[in-house]
Amino acid sequence: MNKKYIIAIDPGREKCGIAVLSIDNTVIFHKTVLKNDLFPCMDELQKKYTIAAVVIGSGTTSKNVLQLLQKKYQQISIAVIDEYRTTDAAKKRYWQENPPKGIKRLIPRGMLIPPVPVDDWAAVIIGEKYLKNLGIKGENDGKKTIKEAD
């Protein structure tokens, strides 16, 4: 039996966060892509993983992406998740996975700005919210994540 995964998306105007989580809530992949590269990236991920659902954040730019998802991936369940405060959670998660070094260690993490976009981490948070809503435990349980190289 194939292991099943979800794709989580944090849609934005210019770029989107995309993540793959296993049904047991392990983060497999996360990346920030240009909006035009979202569907080619999803197609590649669909070749590698058995996708059980696509989860998209409910932000202001999600409507257009949702309509395109519903047309292109009719055979896959698509869910919309409230993305309230996911960017804040994504920044916090970034620093958990990438602790500051040097003098930045002395600055409270809440005051630090990540040096890279955190759209991918927002997608991870959206995926974890979806799995938590399904009753699957393990949200941010200390497991390290694997980020695929560009």
Automatic annotation (TrEMBL):
GO terms for molecular function: hydrolase activity; nuclease activity. SUPFAM superfamilies: Ribonuclease H-like (SSF53098). InterPro entries: RNaseH-like_sf, YqgF, YqgF/RNaseH-like_dom, YqgF/RNaseH-like_dom_sf. Signal peptide: none annotated. Pfam families: RuvX (PF03652). The keyword Membrane does not apply. Residues 4-90 form the YqgF/RNase H-like domain. Keywords: Cytoplasm, Hydrolase, Nuclease, Ribosome biogenesis. One of its GO terms (biological process) is rRNA processing. The keyword Nuclease applies. This is RNase H-fold protein (Predicted Holliday junction resolvase). It comes from Pectinatus brassicae.
